[in-house]
Records
---
Amino acid sequence: LAKTTQPISMDSYEGQEVNITCSHNNIATNDYITWYQQFPSQGPRFIIQGYKTKVTNEVASLFIPADRKSSTLSLPRVSLSDTAVYYCLVGDINDYKLSFGAGTTVTVRA
Amino acid sequence: DTGVSQNPRHKITKRGQNVTFRCDPISEHNRLYWYRQTLGQGPEFLTYFQNEAQLEKSRLLSDRFSAERPKGSFSTLEIQRTEQGDSAMYLCASSLSSSYNSPLHFGNGTRLTVT
């Protein structure tokens, strides 16, 4: 299982872009990169998934450089409701023991 | 898609009692997972089912823990002789095995408090 490293916390203000970088130096060829968001007293919620280059959906963008040893989750124009813990996971479809780590606590202030 | 449902949402029990949690996955999902989450930590893997077969159990799952998924539908997680260290949020997730990397869909968990 590829180990990931991400910042413990990040602070931002409403309307700003938040970029969270996750390091995964030991990523394997078959591994995908998946990000989840978790609010207090709720289960994690899937945000975005990618394999290489850039992926964008209605919520976020995911940037993956050519060497795939890191990835950056970009949250455009955050609001107070984006305050949550964000987890970066790396693994393939057979990785049923995905490791969440401690995640990054993002706090958005008015 | 009604999402993953977990019951109860909260459970308070006295040390030594047995508790059972239920998880109803998304209907077409054949994979089901149980995780445990303590305050300030990310979810930790406990066990995994592919249809009705339990394929993996974490070392975190002591002999007091048992999980079942009869007929590959809902799942139950039972904890016998609960201890205060069992206090945590127990999360269930499901996914669909396919040729692409299907993400996990989580329920909102059962919060267990052992007094």
---
Amino acid sequence: LAKTTQPISMDSYEGQEVNITCSHNNIATNDYITWYQQFPSQGPRFIIQGYKTKVTNEVASLFIPADRKSSTLSLPRVSLSDTAVYYCLVGDPYYNQGGKLIFGQGTELSVKP
Amino acid sequence: NAGVTQTPKFQVLKTGQSMTLQCAQDMNHNSMYWYRQDPGMGLRLIYYSASEGTTDKGEVPNGYNVSRLNKREFSLRLESAAPSQTSVYFCASGTTGQEETQYFGPGTRLLVL
């Protein structure tokens, strides 16, 4: 399973765009990149998933370069409520009926007023 | 839909006691998972069940047993609790395939004295 590396923490201010980069040098051909968000005292929740190029939904955008060895989660115009831990996961969603996702330490994002 | 529910929310045990953490989902998902999260760390997979009737070990299975009672329910048992099992336990259920996501319960906080 591909290992991921993310910054331990990031600070931002309300209204700014935040980009969190994740490195996954040994990503496999069938692997997808998935991001989860976790608020204190809650379970993680799905944000976005992609395989290549760019994926956008109502919450975030995910940028994946052609070599797929890294990916960037982009949160537009963050607010205080975006303060959370963000996890980057890499895995094959078709393998073994869901397989096993590896959660790293995540990136603790702190948004200040 | 209630999503993923877990009981109890909080439990205190003495070393050597046993207990079962209950998890149920009403989303008709095939896959279910148990994770533990220690302070300042990401989630670590204890066991997972790809479908009713099957279970597999995750990253940290020692000291735990699981039962996939039916498609809805997946329980985690601690036969002889140890202080090292003090943690927050999350249950999740998930789908397979593209856009595969895991849906997490609210967690059970376990303190072993």
